[in-house]
Amino acid sequence: MGVPGWKLPERKIFVAATVAVSVAGALRWRPGVAAAKPTALAALALTLARGTRGRSAPDNALLAVAVGASAAGDYFMYREEFATGPDKDRSLQTGATMFGLAHLAYLGVLTRHGGRPTNRRLLPRLAVMNEVAALLILNQPRMLPILGIYGGTLATMAATAADPVLLRGSGADPTRLLAAGGIVFMASDATLMNRRYLLRDPLLRALAETAVLSTYFVAQMLLLDGMDALSRRAGSH
């Protein structure tokens, strides 16, 4: 069984919107980002909504929270991208808080189906987030409490998504993509923070923004498809 939804019209819209937002972000074309960013997530949400009856009520509730919190996070990160001064930092922290809530919802689905974040999987992921924490300590230590908690939450979700117990009996099931989704999400966030503090060249910043946006939406696709498959598999047993 392959990744669900590729023949659905909303998956084609998702691909087009992801390409559009990545290009618009690189060009700093605000109207393009404002239009394409919610379109991409809405397309994923529509695919997810098709499977509501095949999932348990708790999983549906948690996934609805994840999508809603991600939409709020997208809005504040959109503001962060184009803001200047104190509003830029406030938007980043609020966006991180919203995405932290989304990761907690994802974590709820994963733990409901037996996933656990062992030290062997968690420590390398925390190490990646520690690089981001080091950038904050050196540049804006006052933002560390909120962004540090966010990084720990993301690392825990990503480690749990990689638990092999989630693959039991799955064959070629899309749950195999959960681990990749967690890793790609971390790569997107790490790229965002490194661009924020280390990159000054306009071309490099534009390329980094393309990477941030494209990997973010790919990560959301992998996580939502994988969790949908995980929940459906449990419901069929």
UniProtKB/TrEMBL annotation:
Which family is it part of?
Belongs to the TMEM86 family.
- Main location class: membrane
Pfam families given in the database record = YhhN
Record protein name field: Lysoplasmalogenase family protein
The record's subcellular locations are: Membrane
Look up the domain of life of the source: Bacteria
- What membrane topology is given? Multi-pass membrane protein
Q: Supply the alphabetized keyword list.
A: Membrane, Transmembrane, Transmembrane helix
